[in-house]
Amino acid sequence: MADGVGSLAGWSADPTEVTSYVGRDAETGEARRLLNASSLVTLTGPGGVGKTRLAWRVAAAHHEATGDEVAFVSLAELREPALLVPTVANVLGFGDRSAKPAIEVVVEALQASRLLLVLDNCEHLVDSCAWFADTVVRACPQVTVLATSRQSLGVAGERVLPVPPLAIPEQGDSFERVTNDESVRLFVDRATAVAPSFRLTEEDAEPLIRLCRRLDGLPLAIELAAVRARALSLRQLADRLDRQFSVLTKDRRGRPERHETMRALIDWSHDLCTGPERLLWARASVFSGSFDLDAAEQVCSGGELPRERVLEVVDGLLDKSILLREEYPGGVRYRMLESVREYGVDRLTETGGTAEFRKRHRDWFAELAGRYAAEWLETDQLGWIGRLRREHANLRVALDYCTGAPEDAVIGLRMLRDVKEFWIVRGLNTEGRMWVRRLDEAAAPGVPGRAHVLWLSGFLALVQGDLPAHRCMLERAAAEAETSGDELAAAYVLHVRAYAALIGNDMAEAARLFGTAIDLFRAHGDEGGDLWASYNHGLAIWLNGDIDRGRAVLAEAVERCERQGEVFWRGWALWSRAAAEYLQGDLAVASRCCEQVLRLHARVDDRVVVGFTLTVLAGCAARTGRPNRAAILQGASMNVWRTVGAWPTRYEAFTEPLLADTEVVTTALGWEVAVKEFADGAAMPTRDAIAYALEERSPEPRNQAAQVLTKRETEIAHVVAEGLTNQEIADRLGIARRTVDTHIDHILTKLGYSNRVQVATWVTRAAESA
């Protein structure tokens, strides 16, 4: 998961999306001009015209010029409008642990951020994207949205920039002029990439003009045609394109529309494929996003495409640029550009193969989910987490297929159960609950496995603070487990109820329920459930007053995780030991455990445990005479909690200790110094906060006027110090009253103040120290 918005300050283009840039200088400049004039700019144009690549270029130029953070959200793989906001939140690194609507969490987290948010491929989600973009830019004055879509979003204030094809040469142009046209430069760039010996001569001018004009300057069409430069001369290539397009223009005046040009070019690429390549192209269109060779062999083979030939055929499609290659640690994956994939979908539909290959796709990912469940604790846990992250879009498609019929819903329920840790580890609470609801509705009454997804939904609702839904799901899960005699599901119901008691500070009940659940997990050989419950059990026992036994249970849980190479639950077991020591034990041990958790975070990437850990470290610092460090860590922890959409005070055992620690810090430092240190911590990106917590770096001194507040906020703060009202400030600066209200809210929040007098004092002291 991204390191919050702060991590995007070092943003760079995705190497899978951006090769060398050719042309588009004018469009880049115009897009940047529009971004300076409007909070929402949409790049529009047909498929293949280069909207995505232009958006990358504009974003890179914007970041280089302004230093603003950039987040790029690709929506091509997303099919569920309900998942738009959670998907954006996930890219931004914001959590999903709040019962509040996801849009509120995102807006709150972005209100003080300077960010360019790129929403790519909005056309199939245009209504949802329009609503989301409008909501964000209205509520977040320093956030700008750059969208790409085949149509505008239709939002008030939106600036639309149609993306034209690349410039094409005119008949009769000189060779020098031809070689300066954008479309020609792109063709030469891509042709040279596939055929390093490719060189232009003056004799190439006429066929090159003909070729680029035939392709209408469409970048994707040019790139597909350039692949043929390996086998054909420019004249041969132009002649073949002429023949291909003559069918399209027969009996019509003029040239084909650009979307027909693109279709004709892809038709031509398809015609040049072998029979097996055409089959693989169509069948692979059932994948969403990327896929690996094992998946292609299992899903796409059969008939004229035997399994043993799939690798050879993949190689052929790579050679023709139908498939694109992506490298990941330990493997290679393949994907198609969206226009190419859509063409494959059409071909598969024409042959009547859609149902068969969507089912084969579902079956492959159901099998993958089963392997994950079997190997989660046995092999490379982090590798499995990474693999499921890469397969997330395909999991969504497979689960969606399962909602189509009751018999398929049974398989979907099993898939959800098999990958239950994925939703928890990744913090995908809203999405996990959505799939439970949809599959629960699709499944027939009394199906096996329903109790297991109901308790999962109940747990996800609990961590989001949605207690009515939590209780409802747990009651249903308990009833289903009892009716079906499923003791393992009943054990998980007890475990989730114990977790609720732990959050509610009823440690005696939590210890009792966790203990019963553990006995059932062990009776059924469920080691994952056993580990999950054991560290919670140890924490509950400890905080219920039996410190020695609680310490022993927690030590055993950590040791078992280490012995098995388990990483995720180990982090939580270590934090549980740290929390117990902080609340009732040895602060030095608590700090050491916290350090171990933070070092594990780099491998697991669980922001919630980071928030808890920074909170405990802040408390330890407050109680050991380090109030400045405590205030900085408190600020850093609150920043993490803000991004995950929750607060530690939801856990009642922490409420009084946190208040007491805050009192210690403010008494030792004084209110103004404490607020400054807190603001320094809150301004740290998470990775810097972790480095500071590990004492690997010091907080960097900041000029508050320059770095806490934006230039406009600093200007308004100085006018506030003059005693002007908000309306008077708006009149003086020539801006809307609502804008002034928003800026002053941000000033108070960033400086940690509650009134305008404090702002005036801050301005005076800043001037004195300048």
Overall pLDDT level: 87
Euclidean distance between termini CA atoms: 40 Å
Q: What structural class do helix, strand and pairing data support?
A: mainly alpha
- How does the overall form come out from the CA principal axes? globular
Gyration radius, rounded: 29 Å
The proportion of residues in beta strands is under 5%
**Poorly predicted tracts of residues:** 1-20, 247-256, 701-707
Sheet with most strands: 5 strands, parallel
Number of strands: 7
Helix percent reads 55-70%
Please state how the strands of the largest beta sheet are arranged side by side. 2-3-4-1-5
Q: Please, how many helices?
A: 39
Key features of this structure:
770 residues, mainly alpha, 5-stranded parallel β-sheet, two-stranded antiparallel ribbon
Description:
The model is unreliable at about 1-20, about 245-255 and about 700-705 (pLDDT under 50). The protein is globular, with a radius of gyration of 29 Å. The two termini are about 40 Å apart. With about 775 residues, it is mainly alpha-helical. The protein is built from 39 helices and 7 strands. Its EC number is 2.7.11.1. This is Non-specific serine/threonine protein kinase.
